[in-house]
Each structure stands twice: as structure tokens, then as C-alpha cells.
Write a structure and sequence with these properties.
It contains three helices and no strands.
Length: 136
Amino acid sequence: MTQSGEKPAGLTYAEAGVDIDAGARMVELIKPLVRATRRRGADAEIGGFGGLFDLKAAGFSDPILVAANDGVGTKVKIAIESGIHDTVGIDLVAMCVNDLVVQGAEPLFFLDLLCDRQARSRNRRPDRHRHCGGLP
């Protein structure tokens, strides 16, 4: 609330610089890449706000789950300095997989966030982000 008791005006996604339609187009363009990573237990769909994994369908009876995540900060800095951007996603996935397998865990599925400031001006699959290439 403001001092006058009025509710402050909020921003729309568009006013905040988010192009929902461009994001939806990007999701459609990379769906085949995501589907190519399909495995038993994972539906390998994209576009929702979470991922589902059916442990029973994957053959597990009494599992212990191990989770891992990694950031792209250093990876992006090196990519910018070297001018090579097509390995950032592969490296990100590989570092997460490494963190799991050293604990004896099997990578089951991967949740990611793909940010592309140019998505609104491009209508093609992003060439610089190849997350799916790092999946087993």
C-alpha cells in the first residue's frame, strides 16, 4: 500500500520485458530435443512448472533419491571470453550428472531453465544452448 492507502500499480509481464508469446514459441521449437531424452519413468514433456518421474515405472522398488544442481555463472563467463557458447548446456548437465554418480545415484531426469534474451527477436531453435546434448 502507498501512504495514501492505494494499492501500487503492478507491471504486466510485457511491461517487465517478458514476451510470453516468444517464450511459448521457444518451448515449441525445443520440444523435439526434450522428447529425444525420454526414458522409462519420465514423460519428457516441457512447458509445465515441474517435472514428473514415476519411480515404479522405471523399475525402482525402494529408492533413495539424490538431487543435484549447478550454476552457469563461470561457464557463461568462459563461453563469452572464448566465443564458444554451444557447450554451456552440455557442461551444466555433465556437472550435475557427475555430482549424482559419485554418490552412486542414477540420473533420472533433469529440470532446467533456459533464458534467452533474444527469444523475442528469433523464431528458431536456440543454437547457443544445448542442454539436451548433455543428457545420457
